[in-house]
Amino acid sequence: PTSAPMFQSLASHCDLLVAEPGAKVGAWGGLAGVAAPDAPTTPDELMQAGLLDSVVDRVALRGFIERLLNLIAQQSPPYRPIASTRSDPALPSARDALEASQRERRPTARDVASAIASVWIPVRGDRLERDDDAVIGGIARIHARSVVVIALDRMAGSPTLSSVRKATRLARLAGHLDLPLLMLVDTNRQSLRQQAPFAVGQGSAKLASVLSLLPVPVVSVVVGIAGGPLSLAALQADRVLMQTNAVLCSTSSEIPVPFTIRHRASDELGVVAPAHECLRLGLADAVIDEPRPAADMDSESANERVRQAVNEAIGEIAASGQRRLLDRREARLRSLGQSTPEGRAAAIHEVGDLQDWQRALGETIDEWRDRWEQRRSQTGKMTLQRPDLGELAGRLRARRTELLERTGIGERLANLPEEIRTRQQSREQARDQEKPPL
Fold this sequence. Notes:
The chain is α/β, with parallel strands linked by helices and 438 residues long. It has a domain at 82-344: 2-enoyl-CoA Hydratase, Chain A, domain 1. Helices cover 48% and strands 13% of the residues. The protein contains 15 helices and 13 strands. It has helices at residues 4-8, 43-48, 58-73, 94-101, 109-116, 161-177, 198-212, 229-234, 257-263, 275-281, 299-318, 322-334, 341-379, 389-407, 409-434, and strands spanning 18-19, 54-55, 119-123, 135-142, 145-152, 181-185, 218-222, 225-226, 239-243, 247-250, 264-266, 270-274, 286-288. Helix 6 packs parallel to helix 7 (198-212). The protein is elongated, with a radius of gyration of 39 Å.
């Protein structure tokens, strides 16, 4: 047992919270939005409220702590490229990729996370309200490398504000423990048909801000549909990988008209861009090939290819220092789409606007210059004659003498040396009289 003040204060500063079965928390004194009698007290209730990460029996507690400390303390091995078994599959259309990404047998983000991780320590809850299953989090080992995993599970429904808070907590945990962050993106299709709540969008923007400043390697892998505020925030990474049949969805109002006409695949989801198109636009850095015809036909091989691609990406990024890592991440986000034909066309359009502005400014300056020349020609030329300095000095001397005579200052100035000598003699006589006799 423990007291609620201890649980709320000291324990809330820990990275992970684990309870034994049967443990209880005393009287709370009230939770946000929950009356004190209804406050969670048992481990199961605390886990549902997002305040616990795991419930571990005392017999298994030692092994749990050992696995956790090994994940956190063990240094990552040096990066060694792994021989790739990927091929060059035929590029699917946007409609075919969208259909393949939503098959029931296709591995979800939860399936991929459990398949590529040899060790898994779950991290649950947002530490404020509840544990949302739409986001699965944990500390895992992938190819002898410890990472923090965030997986967006399409089978758990639409993301909520609790999902965003949980993902933000996991991102900060990765930075605190100095572990790479892996995000597996797979959005629920139903959530794309409705507008996300304002709180989810605001929280996703804060998550994107956290990811942009995270001093550890960040890798995002799209294993299905990427759409909505939370999924788009998860793409703020050093490397964005997409499986062959993964797609990026966005509303029509967010995409230019030519792109909408060429790549529209579903009216209900807006614009759908397949993986190879995202690679061309610079939204993705690499495409992970799937077994033909899709990942649901050979999920084991598909997951192994994801594991290899993730290990290669993290190994390449981890070779850079923190300062260079942040600079490259910022440069990548700022230069999205600049190397594509659309980006070059936009740059040419901006250069044309700049040239038009310079031309208009030049014409305005020429017009002002003509007006000035015209005004000078109308007023005529002014001649500047240099004065005679001797004459000017004589005039100043005469003026000075006139002023002295008018004010009577001249006589006072003439008698001034005599007055100074008289005062000096008076002070010397007074000084001699004050001297004591010898």
